[in-house]
Fold:
Amino acid sequence: MVSEALLIILAGVCGYLIYRLVYIQKGLSLIVELLRAYLGGDLKKRLYLEREDKLQEIGSLLNALAELCEKKTHEATWKGYSLKAVLEGLPDAIALLGPDERVHMANPAFLNLVDIPEGDVLERPITEVLNLPEVSRVLESARAEGQLKAEVFYDDERQKHFRVLVCPIEMSSKESPVVLLLHDISETKRTEQIRRDFVANVSQELKTAIAAIKSYAETMPEGALE
Structure:
């Protein structure tokens, strides 16, 4: 009787262990399948286990992680669209450069400035895209000093003057990507030149007139003014 009872107990324990092993194996398979889905970009997949144990807790944590990642992805996508809309609407030429000074992003104003299709601009060194020898010097100084402003002359057919702003995204890192902004000040420069030329011409004419009056006064007979 004792032997039969022990066999029954042993059989029950073995059955329970086999059931648990099958359950654990099935649960682990579902978790592996879930993780593969997440790695594949499917963050909507969820895992729900009936038993309240560690596997069910792991499943709940993975579900919560997926929901958080999905939320962050939506936020990043929305911010990306918003940033793109802002950059596309700006009149200034803007480009995002990596640590290797290759162009990773450029707005329409920048593409219009360099007159090169976007597909031929991205991932190319900025010195190959923009005919501005001063760019490398400005970028190097900006990485060493932080944000930097400068004025440069773009010597192409359009003879453009730009105020350049270079701003590293991470001020503490010399390997940080940088934002390059070029603000067209050509019209301002032309206006300043016209003003300088006008002042110079007026000054010269005044000098000429004064000299003529002085010369005439000196040659007049004495007493003619009386």
User: Anything to note?
Assistant: The mean pLDDT is 74. The CA atoms of residues 37 and 45 lie 7 Å apart. The chain has two domains: 2-83, 90-189. The chain has seven helices and five strands.
